[in-house]
Amino acid sequence: MTGEPLRKQPASPQLLAQLDALLVQGEPPLTLMANMASLLYWSLPDINWIGFYLLDDDQLYLGPFHGKPACSVLPLGKGVCGTVALNRRLLNVPDVGSFPGHISCDDASQSELVLPLQYGSKFWGVLDVDSPVPERFDKVTQDFFEQAAAMLAPRLGIGPLFSA
Ligand code: SME
Questions:
Q1: For the purposes of burial, counting CB atoms within 10 Å of the CB of 149, is it exposed (0-12), middle (13-18) or buried (19 or more)?
Q2: Which of 43, 100, 151, 153 is 20 to 30 A removed from 143 (C-alpha atoms)?
Q3: Ligand 1 pocket, mutate which of 130, 131, 136, 137 (most atoms under 8 A from CB)
């Protein structure tokens, strides 16, 4: 990637503009997700894991991510990701220890934000963001991630996830 070196920065319109430039319309979904996870992991402070879980056959499978190796399969309706996948609604969990059934993939995680992802009307996965800091995801940060997720959806090109 050319341009400015990566540096830690707040969740801001400037970072969304960097993401905008990185997400080239029509590239395969896995390509876009991989670069999005990397940019946000290296740019935002206090994030220990960020990545995608992809719906397939009523389970969530680990997709592109940055952070330590994580659970490869998550059941629908369980944990934070599975609950979001079932209800198709964002969850902002300020203290993962207080979330019933939270699935711990990295002991460092203290708070978690999970967003549902849709392609048109088709639900296809979640974006999962973990922080080692409790209550990490304030309103500004949550709005930022909602805009980032909304930016991704219309750019997804033809690929194994969406070609059927
Ligand atoms: N904590 C998640 C599992 C995924 S990891 O955090 C990467 C959950 O409860 O669904």
A1: middle
A2: 100
A3: 130
